[in-house]
Specification:
Number of strands: 5
Bound molecules: zinc ion
Largest sheet: 5 strands, parallel
Low-confidence stretches: none
Shape: globular
CATH topology of the largest domain: Rossmann fold
Mean pLDDT: 85
CATH architecture of the largest domain: 3-Layer(aba) Sandwich
CATH class of the largest domain: Alpha Beta
Order of helices and strands: HEHHEHEHEHEHHHHHH
Strand content: 5-15%
Length: about 290
């Protein structure tokens, strides 16, 4: 199902853990898919950032959403290369970085869309890196790129990658991601403290797959919370995993667990050592449920 902003349910489900806490991660890279899909999603996230509704955002009806729909919102900034140039101009990237530190006009947070990083050379990507390393308090970055492989690794390490490619290979990965997330969910309940590490050992160290598993895991935990509070609107593709957590964990434990996973999500990629990363994941999850 496609909603009025052109975002399908599956993508929305993926975005849940990124948007549900009210603020977007500091920087998101939308990669894969086609340019139209990437820009639609970028605008959706920018609109989410500036929407002033207390209900589901973006609401599409508040003053901010109306301005966003008409491309008139003063706190949505969109950058792209000049039409006749191959790459972004260095001056423009410098301006973009300086602008990120200026406070917003109306919203709490500015949404800065930087289109199509395949058109930004390495020198300019390094300029951009500075603002990603020393976050500007009032800015959320929404980057897009045809592939994450054209983005320098230091930038990748500072962003949450949302890959929207729909290929056979991705669907295979997606199955492994689901199974791993489900296995970690079960391992959280295990008395053996090494089970989380064992369940997650199939992951190839850091990178996209690790992020995807954490996203799925956060959806599972969220569903368990929804069940616990007798709410509706479960989203996970492995409802049995959510049911299991709901059965054995208290509401407080589930909330702490959800917080732990979203905190790790914001931290992913910074630690490249696989063993250390999995140990940290295990420690944080176990601490959240205090078994
Ligand atoms: Zn709104």
């Amino acid at each position: 199902m496609i909603n009025k902003l052109g975002i399908d349910d599956n993508t929305k489900r993926k975005l849940l853990s990124l948007t549900e806490r009210g603020t977007l991660n500091h920087a998101i890279l939308i990669s894969g898919g086609n340019e139209e899909e990437r820009q639609r999603l970028a605008r959706y996230l920018a609109n989410f950032t500036v929407c002033i509704s207390g209900e589901e955002r973006p609401c599409g009806v508040c003053a901010s959403c109306k301005k966003a729909a008409n491309n008139m919102h003063p706190d949505i900034h969109i950058y792209e290369k000049l039409p006749k140039k191959r790459f972004y101009a260095k001056e423009d990237v410098k301006n973009l970085v300086a602008n990120a530190y200026i406070t917003p006009n109306e919203s709490d947070i500015k949404a800065i869309i930087i289109k199509e990083l395949q058109n930004m050379n390495i020198e300019c990507q390094n300029l951009l890196l500075k603002v990603l390393e020393e976050p500007a308090l009032y800015s959320s970055f929404i980057l897009t790129s045809n592939s994450k492989n054209v983005v320098i690794p230091t930038v990748i390490s500072r962003v949450t990658v949302l890959d929207i490619t729909d290929t056979g290979e991705n669907r295979q990965t997606s199955k492994r991601v689901l199974e791993t997330a489900k296995a970690i969910g079960s391992a959280i309940l295990s008395p053996n403290e090494f089970d989380i590490i064992i369940a997650s050992s199939a992951l190839e160290g850091g990178g996209q797959e690790f992020t995807d598993v954490l996203l799925e895991l956060s959806i599972i935990i969220r569903d368990a919370l929804v069940k616990k509070t007798k709410g509706t609107g479960e989203q996970s593709r492995v409802p049995e995993a959510a049911a299991e957590l709901e059965l054995y964990l208290s509401k407080k434990q589930l909330i702490d667990l959800y917080d732990a996973v979203t905190a790790i999500l914001n931290d992913t990629n910074k630690n490249k050592n696989k063993t250390l990363m999995l140990t940290a994941l295990s420690t944080k999850l176990r601490r959240a449920v205090k078994f």
